[in-house]
Design goal:
- The structure is a single chain.
- The protein is α/β, with parallel strands linked by helices.
- The protein has a single domain, classed as TIM Barrel.
- 41% of the residues lie in helices and 13% in strands.
- The protein contains eleven helices and eight strands.
- It has an eight-stranded parallel beta sheet.
- Helix 2 packs across helix 3.
- The longest helix is centred in the first third of the chain and has 19 residues.
- The two termini are 14 Å apart.
């Protein structure tokens, strides 16, 4: 069985390399200040064995930029992120680029969702900017059915593959962060027919619980967990920073790969990492599970 290796997290890796003070723009501000380091991180993920690297556009939404007086840079920043990733891929001479589509409102907070038509329009705008650069799109950290429906509606006109990644509760992997049963995503999958479905940005123990719910959807599936202890209530407040989150100290590359081995045993064919999962983790995944090129 061929396993596709995704890259790892970008925001935390940028913080680790710059030691800058986190802002509510997270990786966007760090890209403005350190575009060369964003490129170096992409380089490291490709060198570590990633088959797919995602653009640094997860948090690049109008509302975040407006709150910091930076919305005039919206299109330029999306193009910059795509160009940095494309340069890295061309340097590596292999691999795919995925346009990252993060949640509107605020990550993990399902009370800040937008009406369907408004959300779809905002996602469609990003897809149009990315289309000349990327090979595919990944809708990330979807925490409710409404979030998933808005994003999938917004990307439905593209002819590029669409993957969607749901985030599950850190203490009950059978539920989305909204509290809705993970099994309820079947309706979305059947309606919009994404090319793959994943679980992401949750603790690996919850992904262990949630992954079996993807086994009968009839499409490729996989997972990429984060390295936080849990998502705190404080972080759910819009405008908070990652200082409200605590990182685990027990998730070494070897231990993370042990979790991924269990996911592969369940039938997962796509694995990677999210926040706090870096190039060394991806290298271990590639060493263990990637077929020789």
């Amino acid at each position: 069985m061929k396993v596709t290796i995704l890259d790892g997290g970008m925001g935390q890796e940028l913080l680790n390399r710059t030691e800058d003070t986190p802002t509510s723009l997270w990786a966007t501000q760090l890209m403005i200040d350190h575009p060369d380091i964003v490129g170096a991180i992409h380089d490291d993920y490709f060198s570590s064995g990633a088959d797919i690297c995602t653009t640094n556009t997860y948090a690049l939404h109008h509302d975040r930029l407006l709150s910091c007086g930076e919305d005039y840079q919206f299109e330029d920043l999306h193009r910059l992120a795509c160009e940095i990733a494309l340069k890295s891929r061309n340097k590596c001479k292999k691999g795919l680029l995925a346009g990252s589509l993060g949640p509107l409102g605020w990550s993990y907070n399902t009370e800040l969702f937008l009406p369907l038509e408004e959300a779809a329009k905002l996602y469609a705008e990003i897809v149009e900017i990315h289309s000349n650069y990327v090979d595919m799109f990944i809708i990330e950290t979807v925490s409710s059915l409404d979030q998933g429906r808005g994003a999938l509606t917004g990307v439905k006109e593209t002819d590029k593959p669409i993957w969607i990644a749901f985030s599950v509760d850190d203490f009950d992997g059978s539920k989305l962060r909204s509290g809705e049963p993970l099994s309820s995503i079947k309706t979305l999958v059947n309606t919009f027919k994404p090319a793959a479905v994943l679980l992401n940005c949750s603790v690996p123990e919850s992904i262990n619980v949630g992954l079996p719910f993807l086994q009968d959807l009839g499409i490729p599936f996989g997972a990429y967990a984060n390295g936080f202890t849990h998502i705190s209530t404080e972080y759910l407040k819009k405008g908070s920073t990652v200082n409200a989150l605590s990182s685990r100290t027990d998730l070494s590359p070897d231990k993370y790969a042990d979790f991924a081995s269990g996911w592969i045993d369940m039938g997962a064919t796509i694995i990677g990492g999210c926040c706090e999962i870096g190039p060394s983790h991806i290298n271990e995944l590639a060493k263990r599970f990637k077929e020789n090129d």
